[in-house]
Specification:
Layout lengths: L1 E4 L8 H13 L19 H4 L4 H13 L13 H10 L4 E6 L6 H11 L6 E4 L4 H8 L3 E4 L2 H9 L10 E4 L9
Parallel strand pairs: 1-2, 1-4, 2-3, 4-5
């Protein structure tokens, strides 16, 4: 089976690293009691939702893109043990890690991160033009992502009439243990 898996919010805990960076730049914790893991972000652009300015967000992304370690040092999602057991038991599958992480070293950082968590030779694909186009090109049979917009994109590029498109799944970690 050909399987695509998003990285951030599915395997790596982007929430924790991003919130720490935002608070460090701004000097204030506007997330308060709403910080991960106490709460899953209520909207995709949750820092703005809690009052952080566009300038703070822009600075955070500037630092992420320039960093040789941001993606590498993210903690795993609480479900990482389930993923590790599944990867160990399912070596016959072709697994592709599809992400849109920015930065000159984002691909290598992602590969190293995945190796740390048990993927011997990860195939990481960085797609800045959407995930649907990648899933279509790879002819995936299953795709997992935490962003509904990506699931819609994958579904839109999948032949739904004959059932041959990938099965898609939106994964959320509500109530999960701390990462």
């Amino acid at each position: 089976m050909r399987i695509g898996i998003d990285v951030d919010g599915v395997l790596a805990c982007f929430y924790a690293g991003y919130e720490d960076l935002i608070v460090g730049i701004d000097g204030r914790d506007l997330f308060g009691a709403h910080r991960w893991p106490r709460e899953t972000p209520p909207v995709w652009d949750w820092p703005q939702h809690y009052g952080y300015s566009g300038d703070v967000i822009a600075e955070a992304w500037k630092r992420i893109k320039a960093s040789d370690t941001f993606w590498l040092t993210l903690p795993p999602m609480p479900e990482i043990g389930t993923f590790q057991r599944w990867m160990g038991a399912n070596t016959e599958h072709q697994v592709y890690f599809v992400t849109d992480r920015p930065g000159a070293t984002a691909k290598r950082q992602t590969e190293l991160w995945l190796m740390r968590y048990g993927v011997a030779c990860p195939t990481v694909i960085i797609s800045r033009k959407g995930k649907g186009i990648v899933c279509e090109a790879l002819d995936l049979e299953l795709y997992v992502d935490d962003k509904g917009e990506n699931i819609v994109d994958v579904d839109a590029r999948s032949p739904q009439t004959d059932g041959s498109g990938p099965t898609t799944s939106t994964l959320r970690s509500d109530g999960a243990k701390p990462c």
